[in-house]
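We store sequence with structure; for instance:
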Amino acid sequence: MVLNIEQDYLRFRQIVRGKIKQDLKKYISQGELIGKKGKDFVSIPIPQIEMPNFRFGRRNMGGVGQGEGEPGTPLAPGDVDEDGSGPAGNSPGSHILEVDLTMDELAEILAEELELPRIQPKGSAQLKTERDRYSQVSKVGPESLRHFKRTYKEALKRQITAGTYDPLNPYIVPIHEDKRYLSWKTKQRPESNALILYMMDVSGSMGDEQKEIVRIESFWIDTWIQTNYNGVVTRYIIHDAVAQEVDSETFFHTRESGGTVISSAYDLCHKIIEEEYPQELWNIYVFHFSDGDNWSGGDTDRCINLLKTNLLPKVNLFGYGQVESTYGSGQFIREIENNITDEDNLVTSRIENKEDIYQSIKDFLGKGK
């Protein structure tokens, strides 16, 4: 039985969910969800919605609500100066409501709004995990796992066979031989694991604004991919003239410096995949973010070759996101689009500002790879 208060709460949750979905583009572009991510929850400020509650007013306290007002009359009880200032008060103020959503709920809203197809994993027939399920009955086991129904049936059969069962007095007394216990059976289940590998240019032309765009977009990409797989590994590569693997904290907070040699990141990416993540067992997603400025055309040609021969044949999806920068030339994305035209698992996206994150996520994830 659902109580009225539970119905009201569920209805309120649906209103909140609808409001989040309606304003999802704003939340994505402003990054309001980032920084509140705990173990399982993300808090989303919804300033337009107030929790229903009772408020008790003050009678005969004056103010505009009690009759005609004069210039300078305060709108509520309290000592307020004409310029709006006044002494510190002791009354509670209005606060922004924060609504908790699980990561699965958040991913579902994202998928509905962006019309994202479910990802079709590959390699699940090759990678198996073992799980114990209590699907059998045994004659031995701990009392905590005694199967009452089966024990009763065994005792009933024994008494009927022995002729001691009286239908007029159906008194069943199990003995030791009647007892049955739940027992487990180990089953192998196909699993689909995924690797998400992020690469980011941290050269002198990539500033804090560009890195913030990468941070927001990678959060949403993670949210969607992790709901499609049982096991997800995330790794990070930064590069300027050389590339190195780092943790997530370093990835998002490294100060920019140096020149740009993009092939160094692609070489390291290929090395990690080749040595640790065989393509027949892993679903691999690679995302590279840069301002499109590479040190020479020769290195760009090398990057094109690395993509064609080493990376694209091994990954489910390679996404290149070009973040607009005052100092970047923006040439790299044009070179990719002009030289690689027949690879379905290559997606490019131009991200001029935070408003473009919404469409960029749809570009990357919209194929369901």
